[in-house]
């Protein structure tokens, strides 16, 4: 509701007198709401801090807690004030909203706490004023992202154990995704990593010219041609391992279509396909040219390392998220290249024996100059050419320097996010363990109480008063509740055992303690 | 825009540009006359005046409302239509000294007539509202402007849809009722006389008595 609408309503109604003489039909009667015009000061006591305001101020926004009759629930007749057991600092902002019509967001408070206060007082977050809206939204988004990461980390982490009845497929998939869950998965992880490295090194070494011991042939051969069988065997072994891994992943994937379309599986396919194509293609010279080209694709095996390295994945993700900046960089570079190449070509046209034979030939010069490489294979000789060449190199630096900070900041942000996620995952385990311990404490207390015979209905109070430890009203009621549940569900000869999960070693005594309780209970029922 | 340096500019060259005018309005603070004087001039009680002023001051800290603000405030009550024309007419009716702004005194004086005045006072005020050029009589064109502005406030999304000729027909009906001597204009005497004869109008004059 707009600010001050309630203030101006009486005026708008009064101004309606202007329509009266024109009305062709009788107008409806006025509503009988008698607004008490005697304005009163209300006292709102928020956790001891008193706020006083006119009743009218609060009435401005009738669809909130303070503006509607909902505040009567909080009225304390003895003191004549409205008491709220909430944060007084936050209430200041809420009350200022009523006074000025703009809701400001405090900078030093937690955004979640602020949201909760707003929800309590019936204010929608959209009421945050323009001055604070952007910051509010940013902080809220950041918070939401962080919480989402937390949840994801909890679900994806190896904290929750797999359900006992999980199939081979599910176990296999989990082993592939989280190699740390079992030893076999870890071994597999390292073995595949080793073979990727071996395959890549073999590809590289294949092309090194090696001089044989015999020194018979004057022509140096690359190692690949000297030892074709050895390299072929190594290649076969690697491809077999990769194929096996790919097929296993395909089998274990929960959604095969999605797996087939994912980037990693495409890389896998591209890594092993050239080998099979090479097997199928007959060895004649026409096709072997194309076959050699296929071998180039073997280098893509190096991308399989991205499953093993998180940094590589982050880099890939950054490049994907900076696609627009990279696109801009490419576009502006292309424009500049074309312009400068044209200029250089026409500048150097007159010279004989010039390297600048055509504009596309000048492209190479422009690229080499703009990226400040300067090979020197193409050099301008005219003065105009030299002038434009220097302008070209100066502008090259500028054009490249522009999108780079954006990409760098993106990378930094994603990298830090990942670091944070890892740190939180490690802390999460400790946190969960502590929470589990606290929860088991309650169950412990109940069993202790039972053990001390506090549940016996006909218990004589005096003997037990010494050993039954002092319990709060909450505990008493809680225990009574558990007792009722037990009586409802458990038949006489069935025991109720402690359902403490397997936790760290501190919980072990509780487990053994549970057996004691069971024994006593069984004995008491026998008796 | 460097707001810090504006105040000096305003003092030195006041009233030069219209851009500066807007800022002048927010630095200039208009204070109303004392409470006693207003009590004498209007028919509101002291408490009512206090409540009115508090609301007014809260919305317009500078103490005056200019036409833009007025239109904006009024349009919030009629979101479905275009109330800017009618708001202009209303503004002119409240701005009795025609200085382009409505101060608290003007505001309260107008409200006093509407809410606490006699029926004749109210009819006078309404006549003043319709008489756009304040020449003492309402012509058909003036009435048509007023009628169109009121129909504009209704907006287009009515069922059944308002016809194009509806304002004109309404004006014809009005003149038929009010214009005794059929000379094409309605004077103040004709207006008051005709209204006093109409039961509906007399009864509806009491409608907004307890607004404040």
UniProtKB/TrEMBL annotation, chain A:
Entry keyword set: Ion channel, Ion transport, Membrane, Potassium, Potassium channel, Potassium transport, Transmembrane, Transmembrane helix, Transport, Voltage-gated channel
Coiled coil, from the record: none
Region spans: Disordered: 144-163
A Pfam short name: DUF3399
Record's keyword annotation contains Membrane: yes
Database matches in SMART domains: BTB
Chief location of this protein within or outside the cell: membrane
InterPro entries for this protein: BTB/POZ_dom, Ion_trans_dom, K_chnl_volt-dep_Kv, K_chnl_volt-dep_Kv4, K_chnl_volt-dep_Kv4.1, K_chnl_volt-dep_Kv4_C, Shal-type_N, SKP1/BTB/POZ_sf
GO molecular function: A-type (transient outward) potassium channel activity
SUPFAM superfamilies found in the cross-reference section: POZ domain, Voltage-gated potassium channels
Subunit structure as annotated in this protein's UniProt entry: Component of heteromultimeric potassium channels. Identified in potassium channel complexes containing KCND1, KCND2, KCND3, KCNIP1, KCNIP2, KCNIP3, KCNIP4, DPP6 and DPP10.
Record-given protein name: A-type voltage-gated potassium channel KCND1
UniProtKB/TrEMBL annotation, chain B:
Domain EF-hand: 82-117, 118-153, 166-201
Family annotation (SUPFAM superfamilies): EF-hand
Principal localisation: membrane
Database matches in InterPro entries: EF-hand-dom_pair, EF_Hand_1_Ca_BS, EF_hand_dom, Recoverin
Cell compartment(s), UniProt: Cell membrane
PROSITE patterns: EF_HAND_1, EF_HAND_2
One CC-aspect GO term: voltage-gated potassium channel complex
Family in the record: Belongs to the recoverin family.
Annotated protein name in UniProt: Potassium voltage-gated channel interacting protein 2
Gene (UniProt): KCNIP2
């Amino acid at each position: 509701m707009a600010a001050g609408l309630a203030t101006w309503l009486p005026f708008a109604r009064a101004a309606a007198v202007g329509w009266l003489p024109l009305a062709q039909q009788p107008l409806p009667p006025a509503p009988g709401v008698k607004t008490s015009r005697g304005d009163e000061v209300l006292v709102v006591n928020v956790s001891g801090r008193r706020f006083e305001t006119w009743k009218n101020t609060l009435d401005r926004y009738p669809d909130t807690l303070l503006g509607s009759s909902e505040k009567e629930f909080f009225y304390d007749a003895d003191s004549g004030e409205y008491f709220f057991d909430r944060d007084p600092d936050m209430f200041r902002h809420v009350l200022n909203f009523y006074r000025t019509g703009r809701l400001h967001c405090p900078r030093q408070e937690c955004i979640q706490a602020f949201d909760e206060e707003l929800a309590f007082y019936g204010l929608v977050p959209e009421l945050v004023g323009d001055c604070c809206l952007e910051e509010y939204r940013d902080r809220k988004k950041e918070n939401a992202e962080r919480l989402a990461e937390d949840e994801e980390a909890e679900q994806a982490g190896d904290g929750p154990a797999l359900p006992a009845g999980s199939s081979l497929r599910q176990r296999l998939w989990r082993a592939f995704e989280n190699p740390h869950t079992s030893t076999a998965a870890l071994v597999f992880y390292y073995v595949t990593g080793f073979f990727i490295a071996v395959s890549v090194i073999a590809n590289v070494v294949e092309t090194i010219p090696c001089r044989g011991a015999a020194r018979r042939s004057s022509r140096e051969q690359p190692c690949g041609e000297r030892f074709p069988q050895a390299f072929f065997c190594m290649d076969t072994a690697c491809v077999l391992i990769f194929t096996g891994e790919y097929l296993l992943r395909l089998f274990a994937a929960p959604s095969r279509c999605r797996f087939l379309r994912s980037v990693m599986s495409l890389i896998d396919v591209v890594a092993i396909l050239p080998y099979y194509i090479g097997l199928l293609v007959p060895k004649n010279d026409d096709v072997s040219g194309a076959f050699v080209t296929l071998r180039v694709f073997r280098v893509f095996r190096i991308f399989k390392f991205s499953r093993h390295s998180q940094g590589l994945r982050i880099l890939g993700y950054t490049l994907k998220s900076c696609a627009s900046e990279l696109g801009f960089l490419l576009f502006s570079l292309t424009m500049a290249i074309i312009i400068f190449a044209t200029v250089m070509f026409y500048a150097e046209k007159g010279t004989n024996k010039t390297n600048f034979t055509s504009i596309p030939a000048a492209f190479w010069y422009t690229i080499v100059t703009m990226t400040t490489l300067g090979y020197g294979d193409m050099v301008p000789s005219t003065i105009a050419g030299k002038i434009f060449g220097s302008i070209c190199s100066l502008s090259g630096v500028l054009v490249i320097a522009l999108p780079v900070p954006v990409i760098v900041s993106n990378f930094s942000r994603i990298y830090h996010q990942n670091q944070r996620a890892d740190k939180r995952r490690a802390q999460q385990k400790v946190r969960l363990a502590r929470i589990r311990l606290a929860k088991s404490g309650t169950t412990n207390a109940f069993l202790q109480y039972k053990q001390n015979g506090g549940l016996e209905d006909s218990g004589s109070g005096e003997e037990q008063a010494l050993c039954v430890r002092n319990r709060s009203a909450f505990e008493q009621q809680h225990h009574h509740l558990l007792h009722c549940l037990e009586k409802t569900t458990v038949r006489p000869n069935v025991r109720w055992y402690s359902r403490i999960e397997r936790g760290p070693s501190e919980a072990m005594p509780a487990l053994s303690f549970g057996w004691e309780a069971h024994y006593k209970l069984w004995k008491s029922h026998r008796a | 825009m460097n707001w810090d340096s504006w105040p000096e500019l305003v003092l030195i060259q006041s009233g030069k540009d219209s851009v500066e005018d807007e800022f002048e309005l927010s630095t200039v603070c208009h204070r109303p006359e004392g409470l006693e004087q207003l009590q004498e001039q209007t028919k509101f009680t002291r408490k009512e005046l206090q409540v009115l002023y508090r609301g007014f001051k809260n919305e317009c800290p500078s103490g005056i409302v200019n036409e833009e603000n007025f239109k904006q405030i009024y349009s919030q009550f009629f979101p479905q239509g275009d109330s800017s024309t009618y708001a202009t007419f209303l503004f002119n009716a409240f701005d009795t000294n025609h200085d382009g702004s409505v101060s608290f005194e003007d505001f309260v004086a107008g409200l006093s007539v509407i809410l606490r005045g006699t029926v004749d006072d109210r009819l006078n005020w309404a006549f003043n509202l319709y008489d756009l050029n304040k020449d003492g009589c309402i012509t058909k064109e003036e009435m048509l402007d007023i009628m169109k502005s009121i129909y504009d406030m209704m907006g287009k999304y009515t069922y059944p849809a308002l016809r194009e000729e509806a304002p004109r027909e309404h004006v014809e009906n009005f003149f038929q009722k009010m214009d005794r001597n059929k000379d094409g204009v309605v004077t103040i005497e004709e207006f008051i006389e005709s209204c006093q004869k109409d039961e509906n109008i007399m009864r509806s004059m009491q409608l907004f008595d307890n607004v404040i």
